[in-house]
Amino acid sequence: MLRPFAYTPADTPLRYIYKDDHFLIVDKPTGLLSVPGKSGNHKDCLELRVQKDYPPARIIHRLDMATSGIMVMAMHKDALRHIGLQFERRYVQKTYIAKIWGKPEKNKGEINLPLICDWPNRPLQKVDFEVGKSALTHWEIIGSEEQTSRVLLTPKTGRSHQLRVHMNELGHPIIGDTLYAHDVAFKAADRLMLHAQSLEFHHPDGGKRVCFEIKCEF
Fold it and tell me: Catalytic annotation on 64?
């Protein structure tokens, strides 16, 4: 479901969690694009804001505009290639926190549904068993209220909108989701209740496994 949209990211200082000669860890706020958009008024983004503070920094991966949380950016080409290959080969472990509508019947499970862009309705994604790309998400309930649940999401693949589509297909859309949630779930929050909580990968200098975490605010 496509709803009206206006790009108005908050002009707040970025929060840096870690930095060395090879990469930095930054907390992306909700409502901010990871990279510049195509239209002129969508140029403001995390990449350009970070480059004002650290000019060499380069984007490695992306989060949806509405998703908040942890991102890693490379400080030189070798680090960009090294960490980028880890994302490509699925060596990076990621966790997310989401607030969803309702409560699943089970306390945990997995969603294995192939995804592809719904071209007539892009940027929407859809499940397609014939030509869709494999997409796997592990989920676990970590808290619940009367009408909502808090879940830990561990994606094993990195498809566009994977967590949003998978939770919606489970029958429990993420609250505040402008694209996939039904009206009641969409109106239950003023933002998408999805937060990238942690990243674990091999350090490009020496290969030591490192893990960084940014606690969820909601």
Answer: yes
Predicted local distance difference test score (pLDDT) of residue 1: 65
Check pLDDT > 70 for residue 76: yes
Return the ∠ at Cα 90 (arms to 196 and 83), rounded to 5°: 80
Q: What percentage of residues in the chain have a pLDDT greater than 70?
A: 100
Q: Using the predicted structure, report yes or no on whether residue 4 has a pLDDT greater than 90.
A: no
Whole-angstrom distance, CA of residue 100 vs CA of residue 22: 36
pTM exceeding the 0.70 threshold for the entire prediction: yes
Instruction: State the average pLDDT over residues 157-177.
Output: 98
Q: Does residue 123 have a cis bond before it (omega within 30 degrees)?
A: yes
Per annotation, catalytic residue among 64, 78, 118, 190: 64
CA distance 169 to 139: 13
Tally of residues, the chain: 218
Which tokens is 196 given? Answer: 């990238």
- The sign of the CA dihedral 148, 180, 139, 197 is negative
Both structure tokens of 59: 């984007």
Q: Specify the 3-state DSSP secondary structure of 68.
A: strand
How far apart (Å, rounded) are the C-alpha atoms in residues 41 and 77?
Answer: 29
Above 90 in pLDDT, residue 110? yes
Report the amino acid identity of residue 185.
A
